Amino acid sequence: MIKKILKISGCFLGVMFLFSCDSGDIYPKEYERNEGITASATFVFDNPNAFPEDYPLIFGAFEDKQSIPLASVRIMKPKNNEPVKVSIDNLSPDTKFLMLCLTKLGRQPEFTLFEKDINIDLAGDSIVIPETNIKLVSYERIQNLVFEQYTCLSCHGESPGAGNLLLTADKSYNALVNIVSSKNPAKNRVTPSDINNSFLLEVLKDENLDLNRPHTGFVTRNDDIVLLKEWIKNGCQR
Ligand code: HEC
Questions:
Q1: Whose Cα sits closest to atom 32 in ligand 1?
Q2: One digit per residue, pLDDT tens: the chain, 238 residues?
Q3: Which residue lies with its CA nearest to atom 41 of ligand 1?
Q4: 98 and 111 inside one domain
Q5: Residues near ligand 1 (Cβ within 6 A)
Q6: 40 and 129 housed in the same domain
Q7: CATH number at residue 79
Q8: Residue 175 alpha carbon to ligand 1 centre in Å
Q9: Which of 135, 152, 182 finishes a domain?
Q10: Pair (41, 126) in one structural domain
Q11: Which structural domain range is residue 95 located in?
């Protein structure tokens, strides 16, 4: 900020020397008018192994929650899981939300990890979001980005569900965690903290598994498989 003011003042000084015009104290006001509002935030990512790499993760200023952002910055995976500081200068007057989200390649939000409503008229000259912990692994992310995104529900959406499995938001957790597989009764569909006794992962990844309906082509992003594994390893939080 200070650096910028100096830079701009410098330009003005330069201009003043060249044309040797007015007296000094008009330019800080000029500058203020052009400066706009800055939004800044600091995030710490819990469970960094589930940091998305296929979905761009962005901090953005949005007018509505479904459309592409008015402005955004992409966040790359931090080394040693240090806090990540991000900021957006010159917020558009149309900004209504600041969001941290996984996006599609066109930057439309796909899954939101953090959001804050903004009243730009009351914002002053900066909006500061203090250090905030972000849960990268959540059951909500699994339900949205795996079961709903990959249309599992077209076969596992209505009772009793293909393979006797229902994956709707109200049923999926209880249908998976600590429930014996109907296809392979030697395993559970999901066992907390035991990825080797979690048939769900085999169904989605094992090319040699003999299912009536092969599933290995359904989940197309590695991020979503990593998410499932991290969730299981960490005890299947709800
Ligand atoms: C086109 C229909 C269809 C879609 C889409 C589908 N499934 Fe299935 N699923 C089945 C069928 C049929 C079975 C039973 C296969 C068998 O018995 O050999 C099954 C079985 C399973 C099982 C094993 C259940 C058990 O108890 O052994 C799991 C886990 C599973 N599906 C998860 C998923 C997930 C997750 C998705 C989305 C990524 C998905 N399925 C998408 C049809 C589908």
A1: 200
A2: 444 444 444 444 444 444 444 444 444 444 444 468 999 999 999 999 999 999 999 999 999 999 999 999 999 999 988 999 999 999 999 999 999 999 998 999 999 999 999 999 998 899 999 999 999 999 999 999 999 999 999 999 999 999 999 999 999 999 999 999 999 999 999 999 999 999 999 999 999 999 999 999 999 999 999 999 999 999 999 9
A3: 152
A4: yes
A5: 146-147, 150-152, 154-156, 162-163, 165, 181-184, 189, 199-200, 203, 211-213, 215, 218-219
A6: yes
A7: 2.60.40
A8: 12
A9: 135
A10: yes
A11: 36-135
Which single residue is written with the structure tokens 């939080």?
237
pTM (predicted TM-score): 0.86
Same-domain pairing of 153 and 217? yes
Examine residue 181 and state whether it is found in any structural domain, yes or no.
yes
